[in-house]
């Protein structure tokens, strides 16, 4: 539902690149398209642009609504808009769908011009390094030499960090929210279980389910249900659902009995209707691969030595998937390099999803930081 201070009606834009893109995997994409949205006005000296990097299942639709669907609110609508923490009266905000996505940018569901068929499993692996290359090309296309800020939560925060390393001259500020400098073994394990749910679905057909007229809905549904559990905290699940029964009494069978089961099934079904399974596989692997310290013998301080931006790092107390400890590692490495860093550990009961929630304290922190950028 559109709120009173929303941006209002927005429309996606599309840009085509015919300059080959050399990917980290060694594969070259001869051409590709990116879909993005913009909010606010670019100022005369083009210095007020803010790039929002999306999380695992995000896309370019960050704020506002589409004219043909008043319920299509952007995924960070509580953060971005006129008078909101990222104020579109001051900033020109860009939301982008990552390469490999399934909401318009070139990805597995796109048609491969060489074959006339969808890429499917032939779409190459993409990483945060590759996304940063596409971001800077988009910035060049729009005429932005340097972003006022690059902001992201979760995978988006990691991509923002990657931009600070690969294109340090292209951003004055980097905001890393609910993220990590690399996944823990436990996080990689969760991602692998999610992928196995998809890969072993009989309707997956090696990723070429498009030509078989099938869809690995069951696998993607299970993957999302698993992921959703890890995005919440035990406290938030207990508060919201407890052991409440769906129909008031136990049925002693394997149908849905508890409200938490009903919620997870709903979230899984909803996601399976909106997302592509091959893209989900790609995005989780991009998370796994992210490790900027890998080329520096695991020394994050050395890896971040090339960064130039000022940083805002935020974590949430109940986020057990990307815990505050992981954020403090980033902060230490940045401070070791004598970079300007603002850090806050925000009390929250919502788990990893806290970065998407309406939280006055959290939003005030972001607002204060962004206000300082704009002055």
CATH topology term of the largest domain: Rossmann fold
* Level-2 CATH architecture of the largest domain: 3-Layer(aba) Sandwich
Major sheet: size, sense and barrel closure? 8 strands, mixed
Secondary-structure element series: EEEEEEEEEEHEHEHHHHHHHEHEH
Q: Rg to the nearest angstrom?
A: 20 Å
The helix count comes to 11
Number of strands: 14
Family: Belongs to the AB hydrolase superfamily. MetX family.
GO molecular function: homoserine O-acetyltransferase activity; homoserine O-succinyltransferase activity
Pfam families: Abhydrolase_1 (PF00561)
Keywords: Acyltransferase, Amino-acid biosynthesis, Cytoplasm, Methionine biosynthesis, Transferase
Keywords:
single chain; Rossmann fold; Rna Polymerase Sigma Factor, Chain: A; 8-stranded mixed beta sheet; two-stranded antiparallel sheet; 11 helices; globular; homoserine O-acetyltransferase activity; methionine biosynthesis; AB_hydrolase_1
List the helices and strands and how they pair.
Elements: E1 13-17, E2 21-22, E3 28-29, E4 32-39, E5 49-53, E6 80-81, E7 86-87, E8 92-96, E9 111-112, E10 117-118, H1 128-142, E11 149-153, H2 155-166, E12 173-177, H3 185-199, H4 209-212, H5 217-231, H6 234-240, H7 259-274, H8 277-289, H9 300-303, E13 310-316, H10 324-336, E14 341-346, H11 360-374
Parallel strand pairs: 5-8, 5-11, 6-7, 11-12, 12-13, 13-14
Antiparallel strand pairs: 1-4, 2-3, 4-8, 9-10
Helix pairs in contact: 1-2, 3-5, 3-8, 5-7
Short description:
This protein is α/β, with parallel strands linked by helices. It has eleven helices and 14 strands. The strands form four sheets. An eight-stranded mixed beta sheet has the order 1-4-8-5-11-12-13-14, sandwiched between helices.
